[in-house]
Amino acid sequence: MIRLFVALELPEPVRDRLIGLGGGVPGARWTERENLHLTVRFIGEVENGVVPDIDAALAAVSAPGFELVLDGVGQFGSGAKSRVLWAGVERNDALVHLNQKVESALVRAGLPREERRYSPHVTLARLRSAPAERVGRFIQDRGLFRAGPIPIDHFTLFESRTGNGGPVYDPLKDYPLG
Ligand code: ATP
Ligand code: MG
């Protein structure tokens, strides 16, 4: 089995800015600089034999390149149940279009449909019993964060592995956008 997801790579200067947002929240496990990305479509565990079908499906996706703006920060969950701190993405029809193109290509390749609504974000930290007050202050203090516009001319199939010090994401292949 292999664990896969489709994502956009972020340029080094943008990742530097995202790393600069971190800190000040007890119980937060911050995303490593090299791991910062924007998921387009999570795939999950598949048999290795299916990878060529997934590759062919992704290679057949035709969508335009676009620009992306990161905008603000927020959380998934709330209060004591806060699980993730993220950087948001300014409303982006081209990104939603790409997500839909990838989704239908993967479903045609035989993968189960993603039932959850696409919610574009860059994961900044995983939280474990972080004090709600500190999480709230983190979000408030960084409300004006913006990065971009970031030109996006390809998307990438990643393998996700479990390393000793946390997850490791290996880019397997890039797919150009028109
Ligand atoms: P770990 O699960 O080990 O804490 P991780 O969540 O970063 O690490 P994966 O679970 O392999 O690693 O996820 C890879 C990427 O896909 C991450 O960006 C993650 O947020 C995203 N992702 C994971 N599960 C889903 C899901 N069910 N729906 C949408 N995106 C997901
Ligand atoms: Mg996960």
UniProtKB/TrEMBL annotation:
Transmembrane segments: none annotated. GO terms for molecular function: 2',3'-cyclic-nucleotide 3'-phosphodiesterase activity; ligase activity; RNA 2',3'-cyclic 3'-phosphodiesterase activity. Keywords: Hydrolase, Ligase. The keyword DNA-binding does not apply. The active site is at 37 (proton donor), 121 (proton acceptor). Pfam families: LigT_PEase (PF02834). A motif (HXTX 2) lies at residues 121-124. A motif (HXTX 1) lies at residues 37-40. It catalyses: a 3'-end 2',3'-cyclophospho-ribonucleotide-RNA + H2O = a 3'-end 2'-phospho-ribonucleotide-RNA + H(+). The keyword Mitochondrion does not apply. It comes from the Bacteria. InterPro entries: Cyclic_Pdiesterase, Phosphoesterase_HXTX, RNA_CPDase. Its EC number is 3.1.4.58. Residues 8-86, 93-169 form the Phosphoesterase HXTX domain. SUPFAM superfamilies: LigT-like (SSF55144). NCBIfam families: 2_5_ligase. Belongs to the 2H phosphoesterase superfamily. ThpR family. Hydrolyzes RNA 2',3'-cyclic phosphodiester to an RNA 2'-phosphomonoester. This is RNA 2',3'-cyclic phosphodiesterase. The lineage of its organism: Bacteria, Pseudomonadati, Pseudomonadota, Alphaproteobacteria, Rhodospirillales.
